[in-house]
Amino acid sequence: MSVQPGWYVDPADTETRRYWDGEGWLGAPIPVDATPPDGPPPPEPPPAPVGPAEPATSATRDAATAAPGWPPQQGPPPGYGPQPGHGPGWGPQAGPPGWGPQAGPPGWGPQAGPPGWGPQAGPPGWGPQAGHPGWPGRPPEPRPHGHRLAGYGRRLAARVIDFGLVFALNVVVNGWFVWRWAQEWAPYWQEVFRRAARGDTSAEGLPLPSEQSNSLLVAILLIATALWLAYEVPAMAAGGQTVGKRMMRIRAVPIAADQPLGFRRALSRWSTLGLPTLLWYCAGLGLVLQLVDALSPLFDHPLRMALHDKRAQTVVVEVPNRPDSAPSNDRNQPPGDTP
């Protein structure tokens, strides 16, 4: 899910607004305090084609082809009048071969110039349609609500810290169920290792675990999912930070406004990443889904939103070094104006 189309403050110039069409900026900017129109701006008229101008008089042609430093209206040097009788080719329009009004070094006519220097030419990537609309080359990085976007390294470190804390909770609460499940499978794996040591690869007669092992695995996954939910959702709803995010000085905020997520948005954000834990029972399918979600910010531009961010419409930003100081470039900007 992408940012909804609408008028937003331009990250490149916070004194103006531009229309975001869901994929890029559209149209010309307007002052930030002006009332934007309903819907997208009208399309800009295409620039008038630049073509060669037809010389109006012979004087203009003479001026265009004269040698550097010659005045536009200067006549021929003395002795080049119409009647001097210097022989064929030296009349009023004559001159040395190749010096006529249209002559010059090859490629220096009215339409000529170095290759690629025509009216539409320029360095690659700097044309009107190059890069992001309205920006030459690569556009500047967005700053939601005046904050820098959190880097992937910080987000990964925060998630590892949170997983460590949730694992510690599971050791305390879920430890007995894990121990009972391991006891169910211990005879099976001991026999497999004994046969492997003798070079026996047959699977006949292996002691299989009882039906209770499946019930224990379901209980383990349910308890692990509940512990993760209880650890993350209340903390994210209140301040957009878990213990790991607080240590890495990052937090999650809604795209619409710089405010707490609230319980519903925090639950929606967590469920995309946390609920697949229940699918670990299905040949590890849940773990694959969680890995895809964890890597998704690497491939999302420009807001680096993970799949759970897209579902809840949140972004992860850096926390300023001084939490009591407001962002300088967001002082006159209403909340949620930057996509």
From TrEMBL:
It is a multi-pass membrane protein. It is found in: Cell membrane. Residues 37-52, 69-81, 94-126 have a biased composition (Pro residues). The chain crosses the membrane at residues 156-179, 216-239, 273-292. The keyword Cell membrane applies. Residues 82-92 have a biased composition (Gly residues). The keyword Cell membrane applies. Residues 150-312 form the RDD domain. It holds the Pfam family RDD. It comes from the Bacteria. Residues 19-147, 318-339 are annotated as: Disordered. Residues 53-68 have a biased composition (Low complexity). InterPro entries: Pra-immunoreactive, RDD. Keywords: Cell membrane, Membrane, Transmembrane, Transmembrane helix. This is RDD family protein.
